[in-house]
Each structure stands twice: as C-alpha cells, then as structure tokens.
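User: Hey, my collaborator sent me this sequence without any context and asked if I could get a structure. I don't really work with proteins. Can you help?
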Amino acid sequence: MFHPPRWLATAIDVVLRAGEVQMRHLGGDLQIDKKGPIDLVTRVDLEVERMCRDTIAERFPDHGVLAEEFENDRTGARHRWVFDPVDGTVNYAHGLPIFCSCLALEVDGRPEVAAVFDPTRRELFTAERGVGAWLNGAPLRVSGAGAVLDALLCTGFPYDVHETVDEVVALFAAFVARARAVRRLGSAALDLCYVAAGRLDGFWEQRLHPWDFSAASLVVEESGGLVSRFDGSSFDTQCGQIVASNGRIHEEMIAVIAGSPPPAAGQGRAPNRTT
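Assistant: No problem. I've predicted the 3D structure and written it out in structure-token form, which is a compact way to encode the shape of the chain:
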C-alpha cells in the first residue's frame, strides 16, 4: 500500500506537540479525575486529545479518530487514527517519568504508520508498514535472545487487577520462574517500543484497548519482531491482548501462558505473524 508522506508526518507532528504539553504540565496542577478506582485522567489527557482531533479534522476530514477520552467519530471510515494522549497516565500523575503519546493510522483495521514519543528522553519511535521502524531516525532491530531464560521481559497489569489479581499474579509468577528478569513499567506503548529496540526481549498484557498498542505493535513488527494473541493466533488491534517478542522466544512465551512445557530448542518462530 502506498503511504502518502503526510500520514507519517502528521503522526509525528501530533505526538511531538503532545510531548510539549505533557512536559509543560508535568509536576503541576493536573486536575486529576478518576474513570475507575485506579484509572486516572488528567487535564493533559483531555487537552492533548482535543489537539489531535482538531489536527486530524483539519488535515483529513474524511478520516475517523478513535482515542481514549472522547467518543469515536466517523465509525465507518476506512482510515482511522488511533491515539493515546498519555500512555502511562498513572505514572504521569505521580511524576514518574515513564509515559508517552502514541498515534497510528489504521486502514481497514490495520496500522499502516505509527509514531510514539517519550518526551522525557526525547525518543521518537516511528514505523511505516513494509518500510521499517526507527528511533530518532536510526533503524530499529529486535534482540537476539534465544530463550526465555536469557530474556528480559515486561508486562502490564489491567485496570481491573483488583478483581483479577490471582490470574494476573499467577501468569506473572510463571514468567518470573522462567525468565532472567521481569519488569513492569506502566506504559504498554513504551514496553512494546523497547522490545522493538532490543532493550526488552518480550512483552505480554491483556485487557488492552486499541489506543494502547496500535502504534507500538507496528513498531515491533517493522523491527523484525512478532506480535500475536495469547494463544499464538493472529494479532489485531481489537483483540485486547498481545504477546510481543523478538521472534526467537515467541513460542516459548506462548507455552508459558498456556501452562505447557516450552517447545524444543530450534523449533523456530511462531507461525502466526501479522501481515
């Protein structure tokens, strides 16, 4: 598919401007509200999402927008921008500098271009389907770890963790028992970008929304990694769950999730790569 240059340029423009707003208000009066017991929203989430929606409406009036804080518009549009104004809102509200903004353009439900910006480290992750993925303009490549035992993994906890704590902790414990180490950073988009950059070897999380991983899943794929559902089947941004890896450890991660023994060494990649 041909990607007009202004698609990726728009994604980059929006996330960079989002980062400016995030940094301007960091540590200030964020006017924090609750959407649930542990699910927060700040004035920055709302301000940044309005900016994104205004930008898309001006540049691409026939495109839809799906974002975290306001209702989806143009639900039947083939072209849909999927946006998270602050991924890692709880971190942001507490002043913990692990957060970002992320924007993808999906065409017929599949992300085609993506941008993720971490303003605290000035790191801009970008991707274009079939072309590649980059960090501040330099090509990205996943790690070479060949086994979970040699892997640094990461996960996230869903907002209903108080009701599902046994399930979440059991899976976390299963990976802790197998991996070199497991981290929990609080931003699914950055976790995925770190897989793409080779800083992490794998990531899993469930009960996610499209804006949590649409952009960053493309960054992983275009860096040579794999993404799938928990059972290894094909990933899509509506499925609510993701396993992402460097590809080499993907089958073993799926086996850990399933509670089955890992595949024998040398059996290769999981077959269900998103195309």
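In plain terms: The chain has two domains: 5-139, 148-258. You can pass these tokens on to your collaborator as they are.
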